[in-house]
Amino acid sequence: MDGTAHRLPAADDDPGEVLVDWYATAARDLPWRRPGVDPWGVLVSEVMLQQTPVVRVEPVWRQWMARWPTPAALAAVSPAELIRAWGKLGYPRRALRLREAAVALVERHGGVVPPDVTALEALPGVGTYTARAVACFGHGQPQPVVDTNVRRVVARLVHGRAEAAPARSADLADVAALAPTDPARAVRFAIAVMELGALVCVARTPRCGACPVRNACAWRQAGCPAADGPPRRVQKFAGTDRQVRGRLLDVLRAAEGPVAAVQLDQAWPDAVQRSRCLDSLLVDGLVEQTGDRRFRLPA
DNA sequence: GAGCCGTGGTC
DNA sequence: TGACCAAGGCT
């Protein structure tokens, strides 16, 4: 007697197993999911995808992988070139951190992306989520992977709540409890939960009619109650330092060489705020000052 | 741990 | 139209 015959009936109503099968038919064809993409390609994609939509990442990821297919290749590139190649993905500090990570990979890991979560988390710009995503999707390890999609799916499916609670340490255990025991299926499960959150169990208007695990969903069984917690407020953007920094960087990205301070004046009318933001860009290493008091992307 | 760090699309 | 949202990380 092998155990297979006893596992099969359970799989029909085991949400973890159902999601793996659903993913096989519903998954998007994204370039970083294709066969042959190595852990480096996965790492680059995960950093680019931090807070940035898939559609904007796709073309940039293709360019980066064509130009810098290894950590060593990226480690040799100047910050200025990377900031320009980052384009309008946003949060350009990620480009600098990815370069720092590449340098660390060359210096500490022989130029390869390590498989263990602890070593990955030690890399600049790699936190709890990204480290597990790379270990799981890049190295095939059955790690629990928790992002905002997964927290939302678990909140509804398991806890019967409309919205994801703030990240907490128990999230990893919640997801691990849903995962199939077979390691290969556990790996696909990790990406399947994220895909469900991205395509079906979305934040604003969930498509419950298309959900493969709707019959097991605690939120649906509870009648889809509205969110009860305090309304989380979204960050402003217009008029903030983030917008001003973006404007300043825009000027420097477009310029051929160093630009005088007077050229940066046109980026934002408020001199005090403009100066503060330029200083913060210098501190962050996104801008450098030349000897003749002009400014440029760091060489 | 709350606030900061870009950008653009959607409803 | 403006709030909301998008595969987080860092301080």
TrEMBL record:
Residues 48-199 form the HhH-GPD domain. It catalyses: Hydrolyzes free adenine bases from 7,8-dihydro-8-oxoguanine:adenine mismatched double-stranded DNA, leaving an apurinic site. Signal peptide: none annotated. Its cofactor is [4Fe-4S] cluster. InterPro entries: DNA_glycosylase, Endonuclease3_FeS-loop_motif, HhH-GPD_domain, HhH_base_excis_C, HhH_motif, MIG/MutY. CDD domains: ENDO3c. Keywords: 4Fe-4S, DNA damage, DNA repair, Glycosidase, Hydrolase, Iron, Iron-sulfur, Metal-binding. Gene3D superfamilies: Helix-hairpin-Helix base-excision DNA repair enzymes (C-terminal), Hypothetical protein, domain 2. SUPFAM superfamilies: DNA-glycosylase (SSF48150). GO terms for molecular function: 4 iron, 4 sulfur cluster binding; 8-oxo-7,8-dihydroguanine DNA N-glycosylase activity; adenine/guanine mispair binding; metal ion binding; oxidized purine DNA binding; purine-specific mismatch base pair DNA N-glycosylase activity. Its EC number is 3.2.2.31. The keyword Phosphoprotein does not apply. One of its GO terms (biological process) is mismatch repair. PANTHER family: ADENINE DNA GLYCOSYLASE. Belongs to the Nth/MutY family. This is Adenine DNA glycosylase. It comes from Geodermatophilus sabuli.
